[in-house]
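User: Can you recover a sequence for this backbone? Please restate the input before giving your answer.

Assistant: Of course. Working from this structure:
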């Protein structure tokens, strides 16, 4: 018997979608937090230091 003929148990697809949604939310929160930490660290640098790495104060908000 091939797997193409086997059906998922009732509700399995819904559970998978819920798990994927939770994982996506977790990943989004983690990415937001890391970007926030980066912006915070860059904001503490002087304008000269930012210029050395090729950034300006306005670039920080885009991160």
């Amino acid at each position: 018997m091939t797997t193409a003929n086997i059906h998922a148990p009732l509700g399995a697809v819904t559970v998978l979608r819920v798990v994927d949604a939770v994982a996506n939310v977790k990943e989004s929160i983690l990415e937001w937090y890391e970007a926030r930490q980066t912006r915070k660290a860059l904001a503490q640098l002087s304008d000269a230091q930012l210029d050395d790495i090729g950034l300006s104060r306005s670039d920080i908000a885009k991160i």
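That completes the design. Residues 25-63 form one domain.
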